[in-house]
Design a protein that fits this description.
Elements (H helix, E strand, L loop, with lengths): L2 E5 L7 H11 L8 H7 L5 E8 L2 E11 L2 E9 L8 H12 L4 E7 L8 H13 L3 E9 L2 E8 L5 H17 L5 E4 L3
Parallel strand pairs: 4-5
Antiparallel strand pairs: 1-2, 2-3, 3-4, 5-7, 6-7, 6-8
């Protein structure tokens, strides 16, 4: 398995595959407009990356960095190759690219009555198996509760908020108002 990367831009030759996987992988309330993602990806602190195994499209990641912190805003693996180890390979590639950075991401909080409860548990176990641990805060956004997971040393709430503000920009940060919940242990 030799996974290679390509940068995603508005001229990306298989943008339709990115868009289809994006819509398949994330509910509408969690999706930021693709035009906004492409526009922000022109910033030097954003990496929008497609992953391929030879010529087979595997998935994509949307990453936002500031100093020694990298936020995985989106990570999706194509259903055609899911559960074949590509997620672990891509996480490893992200760790290699951002060596020395703390990596942070959000997952839907475990909820036994949720329609996708089993998927949430599998997702959390995947990230824990890949070296992530729970942060000491959660986030409420898009009408749901999300656990924050970190790879590397702890991330403070202030660092996280600054990273989000950098990504959204000053104007959009006035409208994007997630709620944070501090958790213990």
């Amino acid at each position: 398995m030799s996974v290679r990367t390509e940068t995603i831009t508005k001229h990306f030759k298989e943008l339709y595959k990115i868009e289809n996987l994006y819509k398949e992988s994330f509910p509408e309330n969690e999706r930021i407009a693709l035009c906004f993602l492409l526009w922000r990806s022109r910033k030097e602190f954003v990496d929008y990356i497609a992953y391929y195994d030879d010529d087979v499209f595997v998935g994509f990641a949307y990453l936002v960095s500031d100093k020694n912190l990298t936020f995985v805003l989106y990570l999706a693996i194509s259903s055609e190759v899911r559960s074949k180890g590509y997620g672990t390979v891509i996480i490893s590639k992200i760790k290699q690219k951002y060596v020395g950075n703390r990596i942070i991401l959000n997952i839907e909080a475990i909820d036994e009555v949720a329609d996708n409860s089993e998927q949430r548990i599998k997702r959390k176990n995947f990230y824990l198996k890949n070296g992530f641990q729970k942060a000491d805060f959660k986030i409420y956004e898009y009408g749901g509760l999300y656990e924050v997971l970190i790879h590397g040393s702890n991330v403070t709430l202030e660092e996280y908020k600054l990273l989000l503000k950098q990504f959204t920009g000053v104007l959009f940060s006035l409208f994007y108002r997630p709620k944070f919940i501090t958790v213990s242990g």
